[in-house]
Write a structure and sequence with these properties.
alpha+beta; 8-stranded mixed sheet; 7-stranded mixed sheet; 15 helices; about 25% strand; globular
Length: about 550
């Protein structure tokens, strides 16, 4: 935007609490605030076109959080917890066969009985109805793009992005200035690798005493299968093939209601081989003899992808900062071996709300609600994450065969005796630093999709209902294009073309030169590029509000 052009001043709105993100954490915080003090004014901003549009998870939900937030929900009609877990399988996959691991070998915390198979997007839509009934204002289609600081350097609100900025950076004919939302406190619940959380962590050095953050990429499809292949309430987790023994990850099949099956694949983003292609590994996984039969004669109806926080207990940054706090996946509360985070997200939202209600009642505003930081380790969240704190670093250090076995042993000793032989292990390198030069590896030859069980990326992105206005600045910012060409392409053979699950990045020859092409309109907002680029040369920022995927029931 030209320096000469002065934009009109933004209008502002005042609230007691401003919440960024209408996920499980943000909505639970909003509900709890109003439960405790109905006079409080609470607003929730959501960058998706509607609540739930950007929500993607497995999901098998531990109801401990919902039970605490909404006692009596089980007696209500219309709740989204329709399928209780009835059967729990753990498989180790080889290239041609599988071994089912006895449930008795699994630590008690891995037991899914009493949990529910859900669409987390539909859970969020249900929570939004509860919040609005209590008087919470929810604004979908508005992306919070800027943190507002007062003269003392404390956060006092956020601003939404301007709409109608054209690709050249200038306001177009449909330009609309963003809004400022001011609050006594701001809660950041953007989900994994959110742009505002990233800024706040850096500005206030919230990660100064934490281990490095770790992530995975989760890819998911929703299928309608033939009735004879449907087993409502079956939860099946697996690991091993096709990833091999040196790359961490796993997979799931969750049988919901109405002949629906969610199939997903997670790749730990600390993988070393730049030729690894998570999307193609997912497609290949579905062809395994223990998996493929479920989808025979079925129809794929949705697709999506999302980064997952995997650092756990030792990677959680300081939650509180002057003027607010991080909640949910912005803080990194996923329990990796359980593949669950929504229960901790709900609890974290409630915990933050309870501390803010007390702070506001005491006449405080825009100070650091340090009570939130001080409470989480002794809460259910801290206890949940501490038991499994070494599973990820053991897997990363020793590989799948030995690492998973040691992780299982560590969970048993933590559960039964309250101690670990390993103490608390460090994660080591970041996921970006883990990638090695392409010269150390051979390209991987992946089979072509058959269009029946396996698919290509572009047809998959179509099912995610992803949409972006093309005449706007690209929301994937490359800091140094020369570095991208020399290193990302020259040293690492262009891994962005493979790690992106939506085909956003391509190296294309133009006039005899390799050119980095960014197909930003394909972006499903997974944030993998922001995490895995070996030089941290790509930054994800929100596009215009209301854009990106629109997941109907993921």
């Amino acid at each position: 935007m030209s320096e000469a052009m002065e934009l009109p001043e933004r209008e502002s709105m005042e609230f007691d609490v401003v919440i960024v993100g209408a996920g499980p954490a943000g909505l639970s915080a909003a509900i709890r605030l109003k439960q405790l003090n109905e006079e409080l004014s609470v607003v929730v901003l959501e960058k998706g076109a509607e609540v739930g549009a950007h929500i993607l998870s497995g999901a098998v939900v531990d109801p401990v959080g919902i039970d605490a937030l909404l006692p009596g929900w089980r007696e209500e009609e219309g709740h989204p917890f329709k399928t209780e877990v009835k059967d729990d399988h753990f498989l180790f996959l080889g290239p041609a066969g599988s071994i089912r691991l006895p449930n008795a070998f699994m630590p008690p915390l891995m037991n899914n009985h009493g949990n529910f198979i859900v669409s987390l997007g539909n859970v969020c839509r249900w929570l939004a109805e509860k919040a609005e009934a209590l008087g919470v204002e929810i604004y979908p289609g508005f992306a919070a793009t800027e943190v507002l600081y007062n003269e003392a350097g404390a956060v006092y609100g956020v601003a939404t992005g301007d709409m109608g900025i054209e690709k050249n950076g200038e306001p177009g004919p449909n330009f609309t200035r963003g809004m400022e939302l001011h609050g006594k406190y701001v809660l950041i619940g953007e989900g994994v690798r959110g742009s505002l959380a990233k800024q706040l962590i850096a500005k206030f050095e919230l990660d100064r005493d934490s281990d490095v953050p770790k992530f995975g990429i989760g890819l998911k499809e929703l299928w309608e299968v033939k009735p004879e292949n449907h087993k409502p309430g079956l939860v099946q987790h697996s690991f091993g093939w096709p990833l091999g023994m040196k790359t961490g990850g796993g997979s799931f099949l969750y049988h919901l209601e109405d002949n629906l099956v969610a199939v997903g694949f997670v790749v730990h983003l600390n993988y070393k081989n730049p030729y690894l292609y998570p999307f193609e590994e997912f497609q290949r996984f579905k062809t395994h003899p223990a998996i493929a039969g479920t989808f025979a004669g079925g129809k794929r109806i949705s697709y999506g992808a999302r980064a997952i926080t995997e650092g756990g207990y030792q990677s959680v940054p300081r939650l509180s900062f002057p003027g607010g706090a991080l909640i949910g996946c912005s803080a990194g509360f996923v329990n990796v071996p359980r593949i669950k985070g929504s229960h901790n997200a709900v609890i974290s939202g409630m915990m933050a709300a309870e501390k803010l209600v007390d702070a506001i009642a005491a006449g405080r505003a825009n100070d650091e609600p340090v009570e939130i930081e001080n409470a989480w380790r002794s809460s259910l969240i801290g206890k949940d994450l501490k038991l499994v704190r070494n599973v990820k670093p053991l897997w990363s250090k020793f590989g799948t065969a030995i690492g998973v076995a040691l992780g299982g042993l560590d969970m048993w000793t933590n559960t039964l005796f309250g101690f670990s032989f390993f103490g608390t292990l460090k994660h080591g390198k970041t996921d970006a630093q883990s990638l090695q030069p392409a010269a150390n590896f051979q390209p991987i030859d992946y089979p072509k999709p058959d269009g029946v069980l396996t698919f290509d990326r572009l047809s998959s992105v179509f099912l995610s209902n992803t949409n972006h206005e093309e005449d706007q600045p690209v929301h994937l910012k490359v800091k140094d294009m020369a570095l991208q060409k020399a290193s990302e392409l020259g040293v690492y053979a262009g891994p962005s073309n493979r790690y992106c699950p939506a085909g956003v990045y391509e190296w294309v020859e133009k006039d005899g030169e390799e050119t980095f092409v960014i197909n930003a309109q394909n972006c499903v907002h997974c944030k993998t590029c922001d995490i895995k680029d070996p030089n941290q040369n790509i930054t994800w920022v929100p596009p215009q509000g209301g854009e990106g995927p629109v997941y109907p029931n993921m």
